[in-house]
Amino acid sequence: LQINKDDVTALQCKVVCLIQNGNFKEALGVINTHTKVLTSDVIAFEKAYCEYRLNRIESALKTIQSASQQTDKLKELYGQVLYRLERYDDCLAAYRDLIRNSQDEYEEERKTNLSAVVAAQSTWEKVVPEDLGLREATYELCYNSACALIGQGKLNEAMKKLQKAEELCRQSLSEDSDVTEEDIEAELAIIHGQMAYIMQLQGRTEDALQLYNQIIKLKPTDVGLLAVIANNIITINKDQNVFDSKKKVKLTNAEGVEHKLSKKQLQAIEFNKALLAMYTNQADQCRKLSASLQSQSPEHLLPVLIQAAQLCREKQHAKAVGLLQDFADQHPANAAEIKLTMAQLKIAQGSVTKACMILRSIEELQHKPGMVSALVTMYSHEEDIDSAIEVFTQAIQWYQQHQASQTRGANPKSPVHLSLIREAANFKLKHGRKKEAISDLEELWKQNPKDVHTLAQLISAYSLVDPEKAKVLSKHLPSSDTMSLKVDVDALENSHGATYVRKKAAKLTGDNQQKEQGQGEVKKKKKKKKGKLPKNYDPKVTPDPERWLPMRERSYYRGRKKGKKKDQVGKGTQGSTTTGSSELDASRTASSPPTSPRPGSGAAVSATSNVIPPRHQKPAGAPATKKKQQQKKKKGAKGGW
């Protein structure tokens, strides 16, 4: 190039060398500076490839389409570009054409890419994939097949495919001696990530969380895989463990993530970021993210629902309802779901009547049994029976008109229509609207004259309004002889809900059995034992009718007389004695012995030898007296109280 700076071959070689070294910007710079020499015919593929690797996908598409000759290399790149632009139908056609018109060693890779397109269609566009007849000999093909099954909701089959893909991956990589166990685990990370996703969809969140965390510990180089796993962990955490969720959010913000994931994946991550901001009370951040999402997808429901939820957390319910109403007016196609949310908010505020008005404004749901049931329940709660009956009437009329138009006036009643009429009749009977209920029951009976239950209801209703008519209708009831009720009486009596249960007869054994087989001895009735009477019982005296009541609760109880049993010693002025003090003086009694023996009174001592002298007396509270007291207490305890 120093000799000749415009040498085409040298410039081409330089561009290829730069591409091989990963210097895509520099390679594209060389192409752009030598546009006169390096025309689109000469270097279209290299230019489109550099733009593709620099994530300038639209520019790459233009470069490929502007090439005068579509070579096989350009067709391969064209398929890749279409896949990145999520134009899956065009991409599928491009790969089919390539597989049909080329025969080389890259056929397996093309089939893998083809299966990836089918998996993307199944996952993101909910298209039922066609059977391409691809032999699942490699783990990549098995993995893509599993992704397609996940898109169809066939989770168990998808798990089996992923297990097969894991097995094939281990086999193919273990054959290479240079591949370590860590390399195998890194390659298996994407398969394990999809397994964890299936577990999460199946409700096995603990197993899924454990597998997700194992993948994160491996620190895979694929930023797209890490972002998806982090997002899925955040969805498991929800409004719990928000600190862990905040850490995981950082993985979704890694450089280059936007080029590795589809638009729907990126959108889901942004939704979860907004919800996490709401749960962590970052109101401004939540509004900012939801507003950005709404500007990107004006017709999407989630951004406006997140904004409304944030307003509700701030106790601004009226503002939230207004926001939802504006969205419903601007996007009538999504109005039904928004109005259901508005009704829920009104119910939370206690405005049940306003909630009913909002629900009745959803025309496409007015006739649905679920909506009718909800409205009738709410109106009944508000004791607005007329409005509840009106809801029934409108729904029944809708079915009449709808079926008449479909059946050209034949007007047969559908099961839903008949069930609505029956529910309306039951509701009217319950709330005393007998005449209105009779017209509904008559219509039901006309549809099915053999329906005994409806006829019985009709007779019951007429008996309250027109007894004569009830008698006439009762003739249509089948007689008791014709009605064969197959009822097992024994089973009915022994059933769990029966109020009377027949006791099973006990098995007779031994002597009892012989007695039963004999002449049938009459069993003697056991005599009741007479109750014991108190010792002081007098049959002539009428017993006290209040004897079963505690003493305090008896009518004649006057309470204890205080101080009667208390000792009078120590009362009065200081130094005074009571009247009984002389009785307590032992020295004045004739029988009391002297405190000490006098001279010449030995006979008296011997005569009164049973008296213990003071030195030999035991002090008060000695163990012997305690034992006696305990014995006395024990004796008293035996007597009973």
Automatic annotation (TrEMBL):
<dbReference type="GO" id="GO:0005783">
    <property type="term" value="C:endoplasmic reticulum"/>
</dbReference>
<dbReference type="GO" id="GO:0008312">
    <property type="term" value="F:7S RNA binding"/>
</dbReference>
<keyword id="KW-1017">Isopeptide bond</keyword>
<dbReference type="Pfam" id="PF13181">
    <property type="entry name" value="TPR_8"/>
</dbReference>
<keyword id="KW-0733">Signal recognition particle</keyword>
<feature type="repeat" description="TPR">
    <location>
        <begin position="189"/>
        <end position="222"/>
    </location>
</feature>
<keyword id="KW-0802">TPR repeat</keyword>
<dbReference type="InterPro" id="IPR013699">
    <property type="entry name" value="Signal_recog_part_SRP72_RNA-bd"/>
</dbReference>
<dbReference type="Pfam" id="PF08492">
    <property type="entry name" value="SRP72"/>
</dbReference>
<keyword id="KW-0677">Repeat</keyword>
<keyword id="KW-0597">Phosphoprotein</keyword>
<comment type="similarity">
    <text>Belongs to the SRP72 family.</text>
</comment>
<protein>
    <recommendedName>
        <fullName>Signal recognition particle subunit SRP72</fullName>
    </recommendedName>
</protein>
<feature type="compositionally biased region" description="Basic residues">
    <location>
        <begin position="625"/>
        <end position="641"/>
    </location>
</feature>
<keyword id="KW-0687">Ribonucleoprotein</keyword>
<keyword id="KW-0175">Coiled coil</keyword>
<dbReference type="InterPro" id="IPR011990">
    <property type="entry name" value="TPR-like_helical_dom_sf"/>
</dbReference>
<feature type="domain" description="Signal recognition particle SRP72 subunit RNA-binding">
    <location>
        <begin position="503"/>
        <end position="559"/>
    </location>
</feature>
<dbReference type="GO" id="GO:0043022">
    <property type="term" value="F:ribosome binding"/>
</dbReference>
<feature type="compositionally biased region" description="Low complexity">
    <location>
        <begin position="570"/>
        <end position="604"/>
    </location>
</feature>
<comment type="function">
    <text>Component of the signal recognition particle (SRP) complex, a ribonucleoprotein complex that mediates the cotranslational targeting of secretory and membrane proteins to the endoplasmic reticulum (ER). The SRP complex interacts with the signal sequence in nascent secretory and membrane proteins and directs them to the membrane of the ER. The SRP complex targets the ribosome-nascent chain complex to the SRP receptor (SR), which is anchored in the ER, where SR compaction and GTPase rearrangement drive cotranslational protein translocation into the ER.</text>
</comment>
<feature type="coiled-coil region">
    <location>
        <begin position="57"/>
        <end position="112"/>
    </location>
</feature>
<dbReference type="GO" id="GO:0006614">
    <property type="term" value="P:SRP-dependent cotranslational protein targeting to membrane"/>
</dbReference>
<dbReference type="Pfam" id="PF17004">
    <property type="entry name" value="SRP_TPR_like"/>
</dbReference>
<keyword id="KW-0007">Acetylation</keyword>
<feature type="region of interest" description="Disordered">
    <location>
        <begin position="503"/>
        <end position="641"/>
    </location>
</feature>
<keyword id="KW-0832">Ubl conjugation</keyword>
<dbReference type="GO" id="GO:0005829">
    <property type="term" value="C:cytosol"/>
</dbReference>
<feature type="compositionally biased region" description="Basic residues">
    <location>
        <begin position="523"/>
        <end position="533"/>
    </location>
</feature>
<keyword id="KW-0963">Cytoplasm</keyword>
<dbReference type="GO" id="GO:0005786">
    <property type="term" value="C:signal recognition particle, endoplasmic reticulum targeting"/>
</dbReference>
<dbReference type="InterPro" id="IPR026270">
    <property type="entry name" value="SRP72"/>
</dbReference>
<feature type="compositionally biased region" description="Basic and acidic residues">
    <location>
        <begin position="535"/>
        <end position="556"/>
    </location>
</feature>
<dbReference type="InterPro" id="IPR019734">
    <property type="entry name" value="TPR_rpt"/>
</dbReference>
<keyword id="KW-0256">Endoplasmic reticulum</keyword>
<dbReference type="InterPro" id="IPR031545">
    <property type="entry name" value="SRP72_TPR-like"/>
</dbReference>
